[in-house]
Specification:
Length: 106
Amino acid sequence: MHDDDTHLERHLRESEAHLRRIDDLMARASQEAARPPRSEPLDALLEEVKATRARLAGSLHDLRANLPGGGHPDLVRRGEGLRSDLQRAGSEFEKALTAILDTRGV
């Protein structure tokens, strides 16, 4: 396997792991959002994260679809950027969710 292919595959696997972490956080937030009292900040956060997750998942899908063509350097850079975006989104979501849940006494 070519080094670029290996790097791209690693970035994609790490991106998928970050996406799963976001999904776990979204599930936790959805459970909390279902409990009274309603929290507009939590609802807004969930909507924002859903949109961001959908965009990043689409980018991940597009990169995966390009794998049969090989790990061109531009694909590796896109994979690296996507991994960073997912990691950052998950971290920011986790911080915001923690802050909201703290204000709710959870």
